[in-house]
Amino acid sequence: MAALTPSQIGQLAKKLNENLQTLLREVRSELENSGDQHRIDLLNNEPGDSGDESMANALADFNLAILDRHIDDMRDIEAALQRIKNGEYGVCTDCGVDVAFARLQAYPTAKRCIVCQEKRERDYAHEGQPKM
Ligand SMILES: [Zn+2]
Fold first, then answer.
1. How remote is the CA of residue 100 from the centroid of ligand 1, in Å?
2. In sequence order, what are the residues at sequence separation of 6 or more whose Cβ sits closer than 8 angstroms to the Cβ of residue 73?
3. Rounded to 5 degrees, what angle do the CA atoms 63, 67, 69 make?
4. If you measure from the C-alpha of residue 101 to the centroid of ligand 1, how many angstroms do you get, rounded to a whole number?
5. Residues 35-54: pLDDT tens digits?
6. Strand partners, 27
7. Would the CA dihedral through 99, 101, 104, 108 be positive or negative?
8. Residue 58 Cα, ligand 1 centroid: separation in angstroms?
9. What are the phi and psi torsion angles at 99 (to 5°)?
10. CA of 110 to the centre of ligand 1 (A)
11. For residues 16 and 78, what is the distance between their CA atoms, to the nearest angstrom?
């Protein structure tokens, strides 16, 4: 069964990359406010298109609470880009069905179909943060 077309995947990859750049800009401005020139210098080395270097991991080493939320978001995006690279993108990690393109347009980092996501949220609702 046909999942996403190459052009749909291209659109979603573009969106993921844009979201990643937006996060990096926010992180940079927070670091600039922190006045830590060493960290700012590190961030100014733009990650290449290869995606070999995880920016999220580099930032996690900074160990700044203010960045935690961004780092989680960046990890999700990097993981989604990795799934695209591996040809695993757009398939529900729980049940294996194709995730609807419309859902991916709204949530390009989605790992699960809407049915599994809702089930998961119900199952974990009483335990606080769901574990990914
Ligand atoms: Zn599913």
1. 11
2. 19, 23
3. 120
4. 14
5. 777 777 766 665 554 455 67
6. none
7. positive
8. 32
9. -80, 135
10. 11
11. 8
